[in-house]
């Protein structure tokens, strides 16, 4: 006999049938999920950023536009996942190197189960997608996860909102992270100023 009684999971009512998946058991079976570090603390040295969005600079692009970079999302255990290319999700090692910035989101806005389920669903979805630099990229992967978990009660997260919030509210992992983010851009600006000044002086 099929049990059609409602099953509550993270505040959402689900109908449990003989063919339904027990989402909680499914998520807890994923390696690294359900076992966050003590207190959910960030550990930069070990690249553990529970409930965070993380950012690393893109070669060449971030040198000229330091507000544009590569984005990833972490599960409740702090493990990083990012959409690194066509049909590829990098796990625990960002595609373009260790993160230089992170944006800690509020775990109180969703349950641990909802957060990890959102990240897991986004990973599964983007392992089947072609990467498009302008339309369907690493930011889209993170937005998909936040939309699936309904973070802040919203389902309209997108690359522009995420890019803005990371740029405004993100923290640097260290002084070295600050230098990796801004030094190439500042060097380019200095070179342009020097060349311009030299050209002006010779006129």
Key words describing this protein structure:
disordered N terminus; six-stranded antiparallel beta sheet; alpha+beta; 8 strands; two-stranded antiparallel ribbon
Low-confidence stretches: 1-39
How would you describe the shape? elongated
Biggest β-sheet strands, sense, barrel: 6 strands, antiparallel
Instruction: Assign a percent range to the helix content.
Output: 25-40%
Topology, number of strands = 8
Strand content: 15-25%
Report strand order across the widest sheet. Answer: 6-5-4-3-7-8
Mean of pLDDT: 83
- The string of secondary-structure elements, in order, is EEHEHEEEEHHHEH
- What count of helical segments does DSSP give? 6
The Cα radius of gyration reads: 20 Å
Query: Helices and strands: which structural class?
Result: alpha+beta
Report, as a whole number of angstroms, the end-to-end distance. 90 Å
What can you see in these coordinates?
By secondary structure, this protein is an alpha+beta fold. The chain contains six helices and eight strands, in the order ββαβαββββαααβα. It has helices spanning 23-28, 61-64, 112-126, 138-149, 159-169, 175-202; strands at 6-9, 12-15, 52-57, 69-74, 80-85, 88-91, 101-104, 171-172. The strands form two sheets. A six-stranded antiparallel β-sheet has the order 6-5-4-3-7-8. β1 and β2 form a beta hairpin. α4 (138-149) crosses α5 (159-169). It starts with 5 loop residues before the first strand and ends with a helix.
């Amino acid at each position: 006999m099929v049990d059609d009684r409602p099953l509550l999971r993270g505040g959402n009512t689900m109908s449990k049938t003989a063919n339904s998946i027990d989402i909680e058991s499914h998520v807890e079976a994923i390696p690294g999920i359900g076992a966050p570090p003590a207190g959910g603390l960030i550990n930069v040295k070990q690249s553990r950023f529970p409930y965070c969005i993380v950012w690393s600079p893109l070669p060449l692009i971030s040198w000229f536009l330091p507000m544009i970079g590569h984005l990833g999302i972490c599960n409740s255990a702090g493990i990083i996942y990012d959409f690194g290319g066509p049909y590829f999700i990098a796990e625990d090692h960002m595609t373009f190197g260790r993160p230089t910035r992170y944006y800690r989101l509020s775990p109180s806005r969703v349950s641990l189960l909802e957060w990890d389920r959102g990240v897991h669903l986004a990973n599964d979805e983007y392992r089947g997608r072609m990467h498009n630099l302008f339309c369907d990229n690493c930011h889209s992967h993170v937005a998909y996860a936040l939309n699936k978990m309904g973070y802040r009660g919203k389902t309209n997260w997108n690359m522009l909102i995420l890019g803005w919030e990371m740029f405004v509210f993100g923290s640097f992992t260290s002084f070295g992270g600050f230098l990796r983010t801004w030094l190439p851009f500042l060097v380019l600006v200095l070179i342009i100023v020097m060349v311009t000044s030299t050209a002006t002086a010779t006129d």
